[in-house]
Design goal:
With about 220 residues, the chain is of the alpha+beta class. The longest helix is centred in the middle third of the chain and has 27 residues. α1 crosses α3. It contains four helices and eight strands. It is about 40% helix and about 25% strand. β3 and β4 form a beta hairpin. The relative contact order is 0.16.
Length: about 220
């Protein structure tokens, strides 16, 4: 029962983040990019999200016609269908307003409102541009495709902790993700990791970064 309550809480919090992302998108603002350089990734999923939104709209219209003889059921179904359309738009909006962010000490790898993996730069062993369209689940690896594609591969010298949408924790040493300008991200990240290596590992020393993924207060 407690696990179910925690899962329900996480799902509700995720929906609130999606709606907050929609509000930011409408205001043409981004989240968490004040102190670093942003790298977008949402463009590749645009056609898919547009198609999904169109299907949801068609379903809303069809259900509205089919249930017109039952006003109470019609109203409930209409509200649920409209909310579903809003969530589809919000999912895309969250991807736009929550890009990857690179600053002097940290790389935040994000995917909409459900992934915010924080990787200290001194934990990065190598980074390369690598386009992949097939991904098999493997221990210690995290794949974050957009439109079934990843374009950057990040290998870590020590694992970081990834927390899934429902709270499952796993440690990863290799991350594949997508960026629209993968070449620029790899160049900037290579430069930043070199600078971080010259400056030393910092206060965390050689211990694994246990708080690698935490959602900031909004």
């Amino acid at each position: 029962m407690r696990a179910a309550a925690r899962a329900a809480f996480r799902l509700a919090r995720h929906e609130l983040r999606l709606l907050a992302g929609l509000a930011l998108w409408l205001r043409r603002r981004t989240h968490g990019t004040e102190n670093g350089r942003a790298f977008g990734y949402a463009r590749g999923q645009g056609p898919v999200m547009a198609g999904l939104g169109f299907v949801c709209v068609i379903e809303t219209v069809a259900m509205s016609v089919l249930l017109r003889r039952w006003p109470a059921v019609h109203t409930v179904a209409l509200l649920l269908d409209v909310y579903g359309v809003v969530l589809v738009v919000a999912l895309h909006a969250a991807s736009v307003v929550r890009p990857h962010v690179l600053d002097a000490d940290l790389l935040r790898i994000r995917q909409a409102a459900h992934v915010d993996l924080r990787v200290p730069l001194h934990r990065i062993a190598s980074v390369r541009r690598e386009t992949r369209t097939t991904h098999e689940r493997a221990e210690g690896e995290l794949d974050l495709p957009v439109g079934s594609q990843t374009s950057v591969t990040l290998e870590l010298a020590a694992p970081v902790e990834h927390i899934s949408l429902l709270g499952r924790r796993r440690r990863v040493r290799l991350v594949r993700f997508h960026a629209e300008d993968a070449g620029a991200l790899v160049r900037e990240l290579t430069r930043a990791t070199t600078t971080a290596a010259d400056a030393g590992p910092g206060p965390l020393g050689g211990t694994p970064y246990a708080g690698a993924e935490r959602y900031p207060k909004e």
